[in-house]
Design brief:
The protein has helices spanning 19-23, 29-35, 40-50, 62-71, 92-99, 101-115, 132-144, 167-174, 203-207, 209-215, 217-221, 254-261, 309-323, 329-346, 354-368, 372-376, 379-387, 389-398; strands at residues 78-83, 119-124, 152-157, 198-202, 231-238, 244-249, 267-272, 278-281, 299-304. The protein is an alpha/beta fold. It has a five-stranded mixed sheet with strand order 6-5-9-7-8. Strands 3-2-1-4 form a four-stranded parallel sheet, with helices on both faces. A hairpin with a 5-residue loop joins β5 and β6. α2 packs across α10 (209-215), α13 (309-323) runs antiparallel to α14 (329-346) and α14 runs antiparallel to α15. It binds flavin mononucleotide. Flavin mononucleotide binds next to β4 and α16.
Length: 399
């Protein structure tokens, strides 16, 4: 199974500390093309034509987001790159940032021109402090080269909270507040950072932009499936012989990635998409990796036959309960109740009423939580009950 490198095309090829090596690979040509006679609307049309959807988890159409912010008739607008990468099992953005910071900078400058913003922020995960100097160096060299004359980029470091990857909490964090989810609408393209129109995109989403502008939206739209265009970068970990970062055309089979590239054996289940991602049994491993079937942020965690589904789900829920911002009741209380029940099962017990209670709490959380954390937190639990229900039932019988 061959990888196709659009996002990772420069990774391992250029020197991330030397802009000249990026320029040798057509670096900043897409920005030059954009600034030389292409209108802001034409850029946005090209992104819309490409079919590019957000790679941070939700899959929102990138061009539509840019169009909404572009249309806002105000002087001050912002571009934010979400490099928080707090999702369990995700390390693709770090891989990209440490190998090719220049494509990201070029993409942010194109985004700034397209929507009419003069300033951008990279919101960097606290644990990625080691990348700060590398990013500052890249921004400095881009400035010296005259590529950031009309657009300034600053870096804001996170403080170690998973919720700050959620776009509205992230904006609160940049504004110097405690990172908590905002009520929506309004959405960021109309009212975002400091109340101004803002686009927020994941690192990987932005990495596609220069190639789309350079080669055209039509070129990009020919790759992938009906609703999932281009490639996706996956972070593969767990019970595999070759953990790592892989880029595949969207629509490729999960089996090709897990067994073909990462060389997993005796797979029992796979979690796709991070902490709140779906857990599927081995029998479903031929599922295509696409927004219309299964995707999320691209974290693939593989579990072999020695793993216990309840332990996995319990640990994930503990993490989510700890990281919940506490603002809305369904998520704050729901995650705690689930931890309590799952702990009982993990100790080898479980009450007769526990399974139905888990299902009831799950549906309340999904329907009424304020943000994606609470809405998606029950997914692994629901999947585990769907595919491994007998494990729970056997524990109850052991009482
Ligand atoms: C709890 C939570 C954590 C999130 N963490 C991240 C993250 O670390 N990185 C990211 O790009 N998006 C994250 N998101 C998604 C963002 O809210 C947002 O959808 C994304 O940055 C938009 O960019 P995209 O359209 O390019 O995907 C998170 C969402 C939730 C609900």
């Amino acid at each position: 199974m061959a990888q196709q490198r659009i996002v990772l095309r420069n990774c391992g090829v250029i020197d991330p500390m030397q802009i000249s090596t990026y320029l040798d690979r057509d670096g900043f040509k897409a920005l030059k093309k954009a600034l030389a006679g292409v209108t802001q609307e034409q850029i946005i049309d090209e992104i819309k034509l490409s079919g590019l959807r957000g790679r941070g988890g939700a899959g929102f159409p990138c061009g539509l987001k840019w169009e909404l912010a572009g249309k806002a008739q105000v002087d001050e607008k912002y571009v934010i790159c979400n490099a928080d990468e707090g999702e369990i099992g995700t390390f693709k953005d770090r891989y990209i940032l440490e190998r090719d910071p220049f494509t990201l900078i070029e993409a942010m400058a194109i985004a700034g021109y397209a929507i009419g913003a003069k300033r951008g922020y990279i919101y960097l995960r606290a644990e990625y402090h080691c990348l700060l100097d590398l990013l500052k160096n890249a921004i400095g060299q881009a400035k010296e080269g005259g590529f950031l004359d009309q657009f300034d980029i600053d870096i804001r470091e996170g403080a170690g909270a998973y919720i700050c990857g959620e776009e509205s909490a992230l904006m609160d964090s940049i504004e110097g507040k405690r990172g908590e989810v905002r009520y929506r609408p309004p959405f960021p393209p109309s009212r975002g950072l400091w109340g101004k129109p803002t686009i927020i995109n994941n690192v990987e989403t932005l990495m596609n932009i220069p190639q789309i502008i350079f080669n055209g939206g039509h070129w990009f739209s020919q790759l992938g499936t009906e609703q999932s265009k281009g490639t996706k970068v996956f972070s593969v970990s767990g019970d595999v012989k070759k953990p790592g970062v892989y880029e595949l055309v969207l629509g490729s089979r999960l089996r090709e990635l897990v067994e073909g590239l990462a060389l997993a054996e005796k797979v029992k289940m796979v979690q796709v998409g991070g902490a709140t991602g779906r857990i599927i049994p081995y029998e479903m491993i031929d599922m295509p990796l696409a927004f219309e079937s299964i995707l999320g942020a691209g974290a693939i965690i593989v579990f072999n036959e020695t793993r216990d589904i309840i332990d996995i789900v319990y640990r994930v829920m503990e993490f989510l309960a700890e990281e919940c911002c506490g603002k809305c009741t369904p998520c704050r209380e729901g995650t705690e109740v689930m931890v309590e029940i799952l702990e009982r099962f993990s100790r080898g017990g479980g009450l007769e009423t526990d399974i139905s209670l888990l299902e009831e709490v799950a549906s309340a959380m999904m329907l009424s939580s304020l943000c994606g954390l609470g809405q998606a937190a029950p997914i692994p639990v629901v999947n585990s009950l769907q595919y491994f229900r007998s494990v729970y039932e056997n524990r109850i019988r052991q009482n």
